[in-house]
Amino acid sequence: MRAAQVKAFGGPEVLATVELADPVPGPGEVLIDVAHADTIYVETQVRSGRFRAYFPVEPPYVPGGGVSGTVTAVGPGVDAGWVGRRVTSFVTGSYAERVTAPVTAPSAVPDGLDLRTAAALVHDGVTAAGLLERTAVAPGDRVLILGASGGMGTLLIQLARARGARVVAAARGARKSALVRELGADAVVDVSERDWVERARDTLRELGAPGGSIPATGVAGAAGAAGAAGAAADVVLDGVGGELGLAAFPLTAEGGRFSAHGAPSGGFAAVDVAEAERRGVTLFGIEHVQFDEAEVRRLTAHVLAEAAAGRLRPVIGAQFPLTEAAAAHAAIEGRELVGKVVLGM
Ligand SMILES: NC(=O)c1ccc[n+]([C@@H]2O[C@H](COP(=O)([O-])OP(=O)(O)OC[C@H]3O[C@@H](n4cnc5c(N)ncnc54)[C@H](OP(=O)(O)O)[C@@H]3O)[C@@H](O)[C@H]2O)c1
Hints:
This protein is of the alpha/beta class. The protein folds into two domains: about 1-110 and about 315-345, Quinone Oxidoreductase, Chain A, domain 1, CATH 3.90.180.10; about 125-290, Rossmann fold. The protein is built from eleven helices and 15 strands. Helix 3 crosses helix 4 and helix 3 crosses helix 10 (about 295-310). The longest helix has 16 residues, at about 295-310. The model is unreliable at about 210-230 (pLDDT under 50). Bound molecules: NADP nicotinamide-adenine-dinucleotide phosphate.
């Protein structure tokens, strides 16, 4: 079978198409004929070699962590009824025509939902839905989303709105701002404007105080405490990190929540923990968006069902063939696309 392999750490050009032996499902495993492989930003950072401290992978390796496709064979001990099922799954080394996965990993793709859309939800959908649970986003909350036009950001907007939150989406430039508005953001702030933080503050003020009637969220002092703040967000979801994330921290209401789960800028927002404590802000990080297998299955089922019902629309900015995985990575790093990139077999 064909796969895309990182030959050495470096730029997108280190991704090459290779011929590998077809994987054979072992005991308790299924074989998936891959239709689409998911791509996420962090895969470009791992490929670059700059994230070696966090991801102990060494070239040559096949990147990627998620697929959609059809089960074509099963290993010993697995019900043959799996064959023919359309699934998504977390798998390591997903930039490939065929992959194996433990039978406990795949989730069924609902009838009527295409495999391309399903692939776009494997990671971004699970993380977005799980993040909103972890940060207890509740009706009436004002939620500021950084990196709103990206793969996960575009889903966060829609899922936060579905939870009854009021969303301020931060995106870069007119085209991306228009997209996030179309996806349902109540207000949009263009981070390419020099005074975007002030604009965000004004926008949050205009959205109004959250009021005392918001249901308790279970997070220390969350919605009620934010009520007094007026021009602040009950929840800030930072999918960008670095300077941008840091600049957004003061926009978090006293008693609010701040999630520093994103680092496409090169590092997570280095928020002053003592300052957060002083202001009663609950901090969340990348460790809070790790989910066990049962949670992944539950969150996957939720987002796939929402998409099948037409209530959730992943934004796929581009699709590349497996043989052009290098171009896919270049496109992600080029930052001109909206939404996310998938690979098609
Ligand atoms: N996807 C997941 O399941 C998952 C899981 C855990 C954590 N995360 C983290 O969440 C973040 C967003 O992930 P994603 O998959 O949604 O990524 P993505 O689709 O590539 O989106 C990245 C977003 O960050 C913005 N950005 C700002 N500064 C940037 C810079 N210097 N370089 C690149 N992008 C920059 C981009 O907008 P502009 O280019 O327009 O500025 C874009 O909106 C990543 O840090 C990722 O590691 C994601």
